[in-house]
Automatic annotation (TrEMBL), chain B:
InterPro entries: BP-dependent_transpt_permease, MetI-like, MetI-like_sf, OppC_N. The keyword Plastid does not apply. The chain crosses the membrane at residues 24-46, 89-115, 127-160, 253-274. The lineage of its organism: Bacteria, Bacillati, Actinomycetota, Actinomycetes, Streptosporangiales. One of its GO terms (biological process) is transmembrane transport. Residues 85-274 form the ABC transmembrane type-1 domain. This is Cytochrome c550. Its main location: membrane. It is a multi-pass membrane protein. It is found in: Cell membrane. GO terms for cellular component: plasma membrane.
Automatic annotation (TrEMBL), chain C:
This is ABC transporter domain-containing protein. It holds the Pfam family ABC_tran. The keyword Cytoplasm does not apply. It is a peripheral membrane protein. Residues 2-243 form the ABC transporter domain. InterPro entries: AAA+_ATPase, ABC_Ni/Peptide_Import, ABC_transporter-like_ATP-bd, ABC_transporter-like_CS, P-loop_NTPase. It comes from Nonomuraea cavernae. It is found in: Cell membrane. Belongs to the ABC transporter superfamily.
Length: 290, 288, 247
């Protein structure tokens, strides 16, 4: 059984849904959640963290819904790692790291800082005296303090320089926890996640083994994402379909951007099994066939 | 092409403005320190005992013995202005402490909690905002009787909602920050999150507002005395002193000018200090 | 179009950028690659004399104007008109209460484009960057980051820019949107012979569009040359580190 699972979850703010009927298991080996800004990936992360209550559907924590689950245990088990600005600017680093520790456990702060590759002396500093990479390590140390089994990582490296980014990814990969990684960066997902879910306009449009998804996308959106990523020495990135088109209100949400859109696409596609993954596209076979 | 080249155009302006406000702010701070010292040390520094009457010297113009002249009862005006500063500053400090205390507490809770808690608190705030401050003060004075305490209560009652609003909007934006979410995910209880993260980070704009408001409070307190609901004789208070001597302005200008100037200078000092603080703490606001 | 020799930008005692040689010819794309604090943005800004408070020495020619010697008036003539600057988030630099169309019209008038031609020029520019004409009726906050970036490019084209200086023009955008903006820039190069100087931290992106690259670290150019050569056989350890960091 997976530790955390979304089942038919619809999420929104002020009654307007932004994530529609998503079912997602956080399985072993890392799970990637890929999508562009506005796809609802951060909203979904907040629901997994219990920061947002679903409008419908449930988040399951083991065999209980999140609402009924033992909060103390859940909070120790599941921790977030947000972008680098997630530190209180007025607090010393040591204070931030110790946020989840009881008074008697404070002595662990130096050890936690060392664990994420920081000098224990940094505990006396304030966030603005640290580099972006160091701050991100502090955020990770704060999460690790309570001994989580699952980390929810929301764009943990996107604000950082590439060389720093690489080192933070190394650190994350070395940690002995499960992870849900939210990002727009496909390459990062390839490294840290065995399975991936591609989110478009609040819906999962393709899900399966990451390698399969990146090698042979079955959804035109996954294909567009993959081909838009510049590769070293490769051809110029390709823009497939115009990104300006808003998600369609009816039928397939991607159809107004989709170069393959056909009459059938006015009916909303359901997720179905194609070539070893789940995909919500009437023309998945055509996409796979190139 | 102003769009892309905006920064180049803006730079000189941005550079000069803080420098001016900085110097003004410094001047404000120095003035406030001087005024406070003069007020606090009035019993020792003032040239004459507070209430010494000298009918013979009634309404004498400024002279070597009486730098500010004397009032119609022959009291030394410099002494009165210094003692009046005590009253005015006590009113300002007490009023602001009371209204900021109440306002910030309610505002921070409203802003952090959101939902119905915010709705309830903000509706209450709106009700208080709807009262015309002066009218309410007059009404209160009728009930409580005119006194310095009445002034403090009256102003605070109409003043705290502004702090509540300010604190609520600041707290609401802080509540969305990553470190607040992180604390929630670590299971830190809400009251502790408010005390540890929200309040300290929401305090900066409030402090700026307090120093901007101090001048205004002194002016309103003076206005209330003017309306007869504030400090009463023989208490020295700047507003009261202005009222008592206003009819003498054409014949004995000093009696109304010096307390008036005291009000003006103090209000000015707090204002420029506030503006300077705002500029120093939030460089963006200086540009507007 | 751009010719730089022995450029040195200093703030007080601190040298923040030193570039011995940098040339961008017509239709060429040159990229300056580096991480934060490498001096890459400073170098870019110094080409337009926009490094306020800095001491800039050396020889900089942009569109035939000696930037370091020219009178402010002469500089203003090339800024915006012949040389356009595209920043990471152009929305922040657009006046919030002005419709995009009004903004473009004003800019054109300011640079002396005649009344009758304005509408035509605007239409052409918007078409070139693949933006719908109705976007011109919107306010800056009503458009997306990708649209804003393309609008900034459209503005440059409308004003007849020959050189575009772009500072991380796509790093705040989604990859799909980035691909669109990069596509527009590439096309302008090919079809109009636009010269492009691109500042970026993304080696992969740079490798797909730049002819030549300069790698900067701590204010110094550590490696420079043909993009294909530098990225395939990096000679400096830092370039190698950057390449290895690519996920």
């Amino acid at each position: 059984m997976t530790m955390l699972r979304a089942e038919g979850v619809t999420l929104g703010y002020g009654g307007t849904p932004v994530v529609h009927d998503v079912t997602l298991d956080i399985t072993e080996g890392g799970v990637g959640l890929i999508g562009e800004s506005g796809s609802g990936k951060t909203t979904l992360a907040r629901a997994f963290l219990g920061l947002l209550t679903p409008m419908s559907g449930n988040i399951w924590y083991g065999d209980q819904t999140l609402k009924k689950a033992d909060q103390r245990r859940f909070r120790k088990d599941v921790q977030p790692v947000f972008q680098a600005e997630a530190l209180d600017p007025r607090m010393r680093i040591g204070g931030s790291v110790a946020e989840g520790l009881s008074r008697g456990e404070r002595h662990r702060v130096p050890e936690l800082l060392r664990q994420v590759g920081l000098a224990p002396e940094l505990a006396e500093r304030r966030p603005h005296q640290l580099s972006g990479g160091q701050r991100q390590r502090v955020v990770i140390a704060r999460a690790l303090a309570v001994g989580p089994r699952l980390l929810i990582l929301d764009e943990p490296t996107s604000a950082l320089d590439v060389t720093v980014q690489a080192r933070i990814l190394d650190l994350l990969a070395s940690l002995d926890t499960e992870r849900l990684l939210i990002t727009h960066n496909l390459a990062v997902v390839g490294r840290l996640c065995r399975t991936s879910h591609v989110l478009f306009a609040g819906r999962v449009v393709e899900a399966g083994p990451t390698a399969e998804l990146l090698d042979r996308p079955a959804h035109p959106y996954t294909l567009a994402l993959r081909d838009a990523v510049p590769k070293l020495g490769g051809p110029p990135p390709v823009a497939r379909g115009r990104t300006e088109a808003r998600p369609a209100e009816t039928g397939c949400p991607f159809r107004l951007r989709c170069p393959l859109a056909a009459a059938a696409c006015e009916r909303a596609p359901a997720l179905r099994e194609v070539a070893g993954r789940q995909v919500a596209c009437h023309r998945a076979e055509d996409v796979l066939g190139g | 092409m102003r769009g892309a080249l905006g920064p180049a155009v803006d730079v000189p302006l941005r550079r000069t403005l803080p420098r001016i406000t900085d110097r003004l702010a410094l001047l404000g701070a120095v003035l406030i320190v001087l005024i406070t010292l003069a007020a606090v040390l009035a019993p020792w520094l003032a040239p004459y005992p507070a209430d010494r009457l000298d009918p013979v010297l009634g309404l004498s113009p400024p002279s070597a013995e009486h730098w500010f002249g004397t009032d119609s009862l022959g009291r030394d005006l410099l002494t009165r202005v210094m003692h009046g500063g005590r009253t005015s500053l006590i009113i300002a400090v007490a009023t602001l402490a009371l209204s900021a205390g109440v306002g910030v507490t309610l505002g921070v809770v409203a802003g952090y909690a959101g939902g119905w808690i915010r709705d309830v608190i903000m509706r209450i705030t709106d009700v208080f905002l709807a009262f015309p401050a002066l009218l309410l003060s007059v009404a209160l004075a009728v009930v409580l009787g005119p006194s310095v305490t009445t002034v403090i209560v009256a102003i605070a009652v109409t003043w705290w909602p502004w702090y509540a609003r300010l604190a609520a909007s600041t707290a609401a934006s802080i509540a969305t920050r990553g470190y607040v979410d992180a604390a929630r995910c670590l299971g830190v209880p809400a009251p502790l999150i408010i005390l540890r993260h929200v309040l300290p980070n929401a305090l900066t704009p409030v402090l700026v507002q307090i120093s901007l408001d101090a001048g205004g409070v002194i002016l309103i307190a003076a206005a209330l005395s003017y309306l007869g609901v504030g400090a009463q004789e023989p208490t020295a208070e700047w507003g009261l002193m202005v009222v008592q001597s206003q009819t003498l302005f054409t014949t004995n200008w000093w009696a109304v000018t010096f307390p008036g100037l005291a009000i003006l200078v103090t209000a000015f000092a707090f204002n420029v200090l506030g503006e300077g603080l705002r500029g120093a703490l939030d460089p963006r606001s200086v540009r507007t | 179009m751009i010719e730089v020799r022995d450029l040195q930008v200093r703030y007080g005692e601190r040298t923040v950028a030193r570039v011995p040689e940098l040339d961008v010819r017509e239709g060429e794309c040159v990229a300056i690659v580096g991480e934060s604090g490498s001096g890459k943005s400073t170098t870019l800004l110094s080409l337009l004399g926009l490094t306020e408070g800095a001491h800039v020495s050396g020889h900089v020619r942009v569109c035939g104007v000696d930037v370091l010697q020219a009178a402010p008036r002469r500089l203003r003539e090339i800024r915006g008109a012949r040389v356009a600057l595209v920043m990471q988030s152009p929305q922040a630099a657009l006046s919030p209460a002005t419709r995009l169309g009004t903004l473009m019209r004003r800019a054109l008038k300011l640079h002396g484009v005649g009344g009758g031609r304005i509408e035509q020029v605007m239409r052409d520019a918007m078409e070139t960057v693949m933006l719908e004409h109705r976007i011109l009726r919107r306010y800056p906050h009503e458009i997306s980051g990708g649209q804003a970036q393309r609008f900034a490019i459209a503005l440059a084209i409308a004003l007849g820019a020959e050189v575009i200086l772009a500072d991380e023009p796509t790093s705040a955008l989604d990859v799909t949107v980035q691909a669109e903006v990069v596509g527009v820039l590439r096309r302008l190069r090919e079809e109009r012979g636009l010269a492009l100087l691109l500042v970026s931290h993304d080696l992969a992106l740079v490798s797909t569009i730049a002819d030549r690259v300069l790698v900067m670290k701590d204010g110094e150019v550590v490696e420079a040359g043909e993009a294909a050569v530098v990225l395939a056989e990096p000679s400096h350890p830092y370039t190698r580190e950057l390449l290895e960091a690519l996920p």
